[in-house]
Amino acid sequence: MSGPAQRPSLSGKILTLDPNEVGQVGMYKLLIGGVLPRPIAFISTISSEGVTNLAPFSFFNAVSSNPPCLSVSITRKNDGSKKDTLRNIEATRQFVVNCSPAWLVDQINSCSAEFPHGVSEFEKVGLTPAESARVRAPRVAECPLAFECELYETVEIGDGSQGSSTLVIGKIVAVQVDESAIRDGKLLIEQLEPLSRLGGLSYGLTRDIFDLPRPKTT
Ligand SMILES: Cc1cc2nc3c(=O)[nH]c(=O)nc-3n(C[C@H](O)[C@H](O)[C@H](O)COP(=O)(O)O)c2cc1C
């Protein structure tokens, strides 16, 4: 095997943890500490009243390229109510997934504060809403990549109590990309500098990159 990683010294003794005994908070900690690194969707939406909203989500991934779809899981607030992003997506059936460049980490992190419904995080953190091509929700002008999405499907996970979530699947209807960040149809990671979410309050940078060819089937 080739690869740059050093194997740590592991004990070899395996603990079996039962989710029912670990409980919701413990399972949340195991998920955020074990599903690593997680990309961050910086999601912009607009309410039916026209107020824009912006928040980061790391329970996020690509789902399919035909149709092109992304998924994000939005957890209930501690009081059981829905976050503004979910309320807006359900009301308008549209949202924009902006990329999360490392140079915007302070603004991205600040947008995770619980601002009252009706307050726009764009203004609070000093980011610029730019008109989208196919959806009403604006994209973030400072982000070099954005996926404009229409709601494809929502899946309710859990009974609405703490930790329950709504899995939102969005179909991409337009991609907005800074010209300098794409060449021959390939996105350039050095122009995107993607942040990732790690366990606890940690963020990661994507810096140690190496290529390995896929094995040929014999
Ligand atoms: C890096 C980061 C990742 C986050 N990921 C998620 C997530 O995947 N799901 C979620 O429900 N909340 C997540 N949050 C918390 C939301 O951003 C936070 O609840 C925010 O206030 C929601 O805003 P809204 O009410 O305007 O939608 C994350 C916060 C940070 C800082």
Walk me through what this model shows.
- The protein is an alpha+beta fold.
- The chain has a single domain, classed as Electron Transport, Fmn-binding Protein, Chain A (Pnp Oxidase, Chain A, Roll), CATH 2.30.110.10.
- It has helices at residues 19-34, 84-92, 105-110, 121-125, 189-192; strands spanning 38-39, 41-46, 52-57, 60-65, 68-75, 94-98, 129-130, 139-140, 145-157, 165-177, 182-183, 186-187, 195-197, 203-205.
- A seven-stranded antiparallel β-sheet has the order 3-2-6-9-10-5-4, covered by helices on one side. Strands 1-13-14 form a three-stranded antiparallel β-sheet, with no helix packed on it.
- The structure holds flavin mononucleotide (FMN).
- The site of flavin mononucleotide (FMN) has 17 residues, from strand 3, strand 5 and helix 2.
What gross morphology would you assign? globular
Q: Termini distance?
A: 18 Å
Major beta sheet, strand line-up: 3-2-6-9-10-5-4
Query: Roughly what is the average pLDDT, rounded to an integer?
Result: 95
The CATH class, by name, is Mainly Beta
> Any idea what the radius of gyration is?
19 Å
From the structure provided, what is the oligomeric state, counting identical versus distinct chains? single chain
> Main beta sheet: strand number and arrangement?
7 strands, antiparallel
Provide a brief overview of the structure.
The protein has 218 residues and is α+β, with helices and mostly antiparallel strands. The protein is 18% helix and 33% strand.
Task: Give descriptors for this structure.
about 220 residues, Pnp Oxidase, Chain A, about 20% helix, globular, binds flavin mononucleotide
